[in-house]
Design a protein that fits this description.
single chain, mainly beta, 4% helix, Tachylectin-2, Chain A, Immunoglobulin-like
């Protein structure tokens, strides 16, 4: 069985950032984001921001990182890659300079041919239609739209004027609102205009001296307007599906929406199923700015950016989920258990084979620093972590599952905690960052026990030469254990080991939860409140919602009962809600109700 667990298990490279907003302070974190995924000559490739390379796989499960030629714009954001005939075309973002393109017939070995560009862009996406015509989409701002234009297929230069395709509508589209859980309310245009004028006046700047595009950006700073960015075009059944990301990469509700049209340059209409990619709950949230690809077997997949955003707003990872088109042509993505182990085989709506066993279970450790207690490794929150008091290999972290279970998978998630070291090289002139080029190592041992006294080896990476900060240990046949212990840890730069999640998956021997009891009410045009009543024998709940009982394509996982506000609704569109309950033994499907009826 081909099994993986988000985020993609790859060596995420460290980055040394000069934060100009903090006086040039050095901030260090791992980053990979904005993935473009393609299938080329029967292999899969993911190009992601700030990786210095490309990830390659034969099965969508095991990925290897290969360096790319240094002449490519590897320090530019949002690499875009498309297959056109025998060629792979590559470009990346540079907002204030003309952006070149490159093409190759051999991704790993090159050579790459340069195609000169003649205009700057941000968050690019190239698309080749069935008739040989080529189109280009771009845009990344909370003040400007996503544009589209037809390109000459030889020179890759625009053939006409750009067309506005997608703009933000946070007063009508709930999932476009910014902030954690969509908490930031947008200002109306008049209020944003007043804030901009106050800002300019305080700096002695006259409004008539500011270019209109710069005023739009300043206005956007104060409007809480969503970033509309990260476009990706997919054609299916003769229709064009223009995907876009919003409202901001640092939020748990970072999502991909989709518009549809019968023509590549529109006009476009908001699809019935929105947001298309949405994973706000669970251990590692976020599912915005990505790409959609069909594999060798015809199965669709969506890859997007997942957020951590503690050491830096752009501290991010990459996730992969099954996707597809339903009988009505609606583009969907299954993220119901989006950071649990899943197989690449079968129905895209398949439930996970193994349940989460470790959430809120008792944890102990050899030592810890205040605020980073052992239980932080089991609370299913990537933004908190256990931190050892030293970097000695004698430090350990242990989870007590509370009973003996059949364990099939363990995900070991290492975190970074305000690394304070100098940059290994001088940051190049004209850049504000350096990406670590050395191959580092993350090493550890993993043990199990049924009684906490006699231990057996599960996995030994004491001498590993890999640097996998979200490593996955799989045992398809399973083994019986109650205790899991992580020992002998050594992590990059001699840090004290930090673990955000020692996550254990398998099956128990007891009963599944009962059917969940809940109420759901529409608070206003864009928000609903789901209130879940506590019940025994339950570890968590998955709130599912969508446009019909058969299309509950959106989900939000929570680990406690009570009230949950969900602000992802679209104005004047019908919504149905279901709450599934889960524990170590399985999932119990709830009853579906129309949101307007309110109560179950």
């Amino acid at each position: 069985m081909a099994v993986y667990c988000n985020p993609i298990n790859i060596n995420y490279r460290y980055q040394f950032n000069l934060d100009q907003r903090r006086g040039g302070a050095l901030r260090i974190c791992r980053e990979a984001a904005d993935p473009s995924m393609i299938c080329f000559r029967d292999r899969y490739y993911i190009f992601a921001s700030m990786t210095l390379g490309v990830w390659v796989s034969d099965d969508l499960v095991r990925w290897e990182n290969h360096r790319l030629p240094p002449e490519l714009p590897l320090y530019d954001y949002a690499p875009d890659v498309r297959v056109i005939g025998d060629w792979v075309y590559f470009c990346a973002s540079r907002r204030d300079e003309n952006c070149d393109r490159w093409r190759t017939r051999d991704i790993l070995n090159g050579p790459y041919e340069r195609i000169p560009g003649n205009f700057p862009f941000w968050d690019p996406n190239l698309f080749a239609d069935d008739d040989g015509r080529v189109y280009f989409y771009w845009g990344c701002s909370n003040a400007t739209p996503i544009w589209g234009v037809e390109l000459d297929p030889v020179t890759m230069l625009p053939k006409g004027e750009r067309t506005v395709l997608i703009e933000g509508h946070p007063f009508e589209i709930g999932y476009e609102r910014s902030g954690e859980d969509h908490c930031l309310l947008p200002l109306c245009p008049e209020e944003a205009e007043a804030e901009m004028r106050t800002f300019l006046a305080a700096r002695g700047m006259r409004e008539d001296q500011i270019p209109e595009d710069r005023k739009a950006m300043i206005r956007g700073m104060f409007s809480n307007a969503p970033f509309i960015e990260g476009s990706w075009m997919t054609k299916h059944g003769g229709r064009y599906y223009l995907q876009y990301a919003c409202p901001g990469t640092e939020f748990n509700i970072y999502a991909d929406g989709v518009y549809v049209s019968d023509r590549p340059l529109g006009p476009f209409t908001l699809a019935d199923n929105n947001p298309y990619s949405y994973h706000p709950g669970g251990f590692l949230p976020g599912a915005g700015h990505g790409s959609t690809m069909r594999d060798r077997q015809g199965q669709w997949w969506h890859t997007s950016t997942m957020r951590i955003s503690v050491n830096h707003n752009f501290e991010r990872r990459v996730g992969l989920w099954p996707a597809g088109f339903d009988a009505d042509g609606e583009l969907f993505c299954n993220q119901r258990y989006g950071d649990w182990p899943m197989t690449t085989e079968g129905d895209p709506w398949r439930d996970p084979a193994w349940m989460l066993l470790s959430v809120n279970k008792t944890a102990a450790a050899s030592s810890y620093l205040d605020g980073h207690e052992p239980n932080k490794a089991t609370e299913e929150n990537v933004q908190t972590w256990w931190r050892a008091a030293s970097n000695s290999r004698s430090e350990w972290l242990q989870v007590d599952l509370g009973a003996i279970y059949d364990v099939h998978a363990i995900q070991v998630n290492f975190a970074d905690d305000a690394i304070d070291i100098p940059c290994p090289v001088e940051i190049a002139k004209g850049r504000d960052r350096y990406i670590e080029e050395r191959n580092l190592q993350t090493q550890w041992r993993l043990e199990g026990s049924t009684d906490g006294e006699d231990w057996f080896s599960i996995e030994d990476k004491f001498d590993a030469h890999t640097d996998l900060s979200h490593d996955l240990v799989l045992r398809e046949e399973g083994f019986r254990t109650r205790f899991i212990r992580l020992t002998d840890m050594a992590v990059p730069y001699g840090q004290n080991p930090c673990v955000s999640g020692l996550r254990v998956f398998g099956r128990g021997y007891g009963e599944k939860p009962g059917i969940s009891s809940f109420s759901a009410e529409r608070a206003d045009a864009l928000d609903m409140t789901v209130t879940i009543r506590a019940q025994e024998n339950t570890l968590g709940y998955n709130i599912l919602f969508g446009s019909s009982p058969e299309k509950l394509y959106h989900s939000w996982m929570v680990f406690s009962p009570g009230e949950k506000r969900i602000g992802a609704l679209v104005k004047e569109r019908r919504c149905y809600v279901r709450v599934d309950a889960f524990n170590e033994n399985g999932i119990t499907e709830g009853r579906c109700i129309p949101l307007e009826e309110g109560h179950l």
